[in-house]
């Protein structure tokens, strides 16, 4: 069947020491005054100095905003506060340097300079109508994909749930992906963000919006990340592993941006919002239960993912192959100490399942891509299975 495909990506600079191109990229955007949005750990690790060096060398006017509040779960008011700094300071380029939360704040703060109102007014799809100030995203983790996507995730404090802003207007102008900037990532960040990247490739592969381009990228990203994450996690200074993880994450981000995540991410939002667990962890504890729920229609694709992970599927029935695939995924997560069930992270309140299911079902933007039409009751069963999934 013929399919029309639209594939979107920012201008990308990838590779060792690619951060040195930042001044050149600012000039390409006609930037005269830039705001660098970052966090304390980026500054203390010396990464900020690496970003600023080319900017200083080219005598570009700049200022730095170090977000002092916890940005594990960026809040809507944080993006609004930075947006005011951008507007009041007359900055014409916003540079985000950090993990996904920092980058999401930077992207949204830019958008709010040309889209009036509060961040929560833009939750959902394509509500941000106008492109903000030009943005350059520089990730310091291999995983979130925020540097090349049109999404930003925030904690909706009114409802205590994570919500997404999704719009073409949020797409960064430039992404600079330098593997050397990820070397200082702690092991728990390496594993959680690395698994997030793996899922950005794997989940769209079993969704409705997949296409031949994203399929090819997804399988290669799964292969690269499966092979490299454990090495980067156990030996943070292994530059080749960091390089491969940054490459796999970049490819997975392209898949995310053009095919989109679905069931796992939808059901993770209520868990992440209520229990404030790290995003990657909220995904890992639901993965096998969610993939099992769609295995009737996506079993062969789950087997292809397992093959990309190095599993031998020869001679197996689809049902047998699905079991091998889910076991392989669980083993992969365990190998980097990622939890695979809700009970492992101390979430044991089974009376909350109904509340989560109602909230998860509301994530229509994501569930619209799911391979299976799910009722609230179906979703409740997935959460229930996730309490003790494959322990």
Task: Give a structural overview.
This protein is an alpha/beta fold and 391 residues long. It has 2 domains: 11-182, 3-Layer(aba) Sandwich (Rossmann fold), CATH 3.40.50; 187-386, Dehydroquinate synthase-like - alpha domain (Dehydroquinate synthase-like, alpha domain). 50% of the residues lie in helices and 12% in strands. It has 16 helices and 9 strands. Strands 1-9-6-4-2-3 form a 6-stranded parallel beta sheet, sandwiched between helices. The longest helix is centred in the middle third of the chain and has 23 residues, at 212-234. It is globular. The model has no long low-confidence stretch (mean pLDDT 95).
**SSE ordering:** EHEHHEHEHEEEEEHHHHHHHHHHH
Q: What is the CATH level 1 assignment of the largest domain?
A: Mainly Alpha
Proportion of helical residues: 40-55%
Distance between the termini: 41 Å
Number of helices: 16
| Secondary-structure arrangement, i.e. CATH architecture of the largest domain | Up-down Bundle
Could you describe the largest sheet, including whether it forms a barrel?
A: 6 strands, parallel
Number of domains: 2
């Amino acid at each position: 069947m013929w399919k029309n495909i639209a594939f979107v990506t920012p201008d990308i600079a990838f590779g060792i020491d690619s951060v040195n191109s930042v001044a050149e990229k600012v000039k390409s955007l006609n930037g005269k005054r830039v705001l660098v949005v970052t966090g304390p750990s980026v500054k203390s690790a010396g990464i900020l100095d690496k970003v600023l060096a080319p900017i200083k060398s080219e005598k570009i006017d700049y200022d730095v905003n170090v977000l002092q509040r916890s940005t594990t779960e960026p809040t809507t008011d944080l993006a609004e506060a930075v947006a005011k700094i951008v507007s009041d300071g007359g900055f014409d380029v916003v540079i985000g340097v950090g993990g996904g939360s920092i980058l999401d704040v930077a992207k949204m703060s830019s958008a709010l300079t040309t889209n009036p109102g509060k961040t929560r007014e833009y939750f959902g799809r394509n509500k941000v109508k106008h492109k903000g100030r030009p943005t350059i995203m520089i990730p310091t983790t291999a995983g979130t994909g925020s540097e090349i996507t049109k999404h930003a995730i925030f904690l909706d404090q009114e409802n205590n749930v994570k919500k997404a802003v999704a719009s073409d207007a949020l797409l960064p102008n430039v992404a600079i992906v330098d593997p050397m900037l990820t070397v200082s990532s702690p092991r728990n960040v390496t594993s959680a963000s690395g698994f997030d990247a793996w899922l950005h490739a794997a989940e769209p592969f079993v969704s409705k919006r997949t296409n031949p381009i994203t399929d090819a990228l997804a399988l290669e990203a799964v292969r690269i990340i499966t092979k490299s994450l454990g090495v980067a996690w156990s030996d943070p200074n292994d530059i080749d592993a960091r390089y491969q993880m940054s490459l796999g994450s970049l490819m997975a981000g392209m898949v995310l941006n053009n095919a989109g995540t679905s069931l796992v991410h939808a059901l993770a939002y209520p868990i992440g919002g209520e229990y404030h667990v790290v995003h990657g962890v909220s995904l890992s504890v639901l993965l096998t239960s969610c993939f099992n729920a769609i295995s009737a229609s996506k079993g062969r694709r789950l087997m292809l993912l397992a093959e990309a992970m190095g599993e031998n599927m020869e001679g197996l029935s689809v049902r047998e192959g699905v079991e091998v695939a889910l076991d392989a995924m669980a083993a992969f997560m365990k190998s980097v100490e990622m939890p695979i069930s809700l009970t492992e992270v101390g979430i044991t309140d089974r009376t909350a399942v109904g509340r989560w299911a109602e909230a998860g079902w509301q994530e229509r933007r994501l569930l619209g891509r799911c391979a299976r039409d799910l009722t609230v009751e179906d979703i409740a069963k997935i959460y229930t299975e996730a309490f003790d999934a494959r322990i």
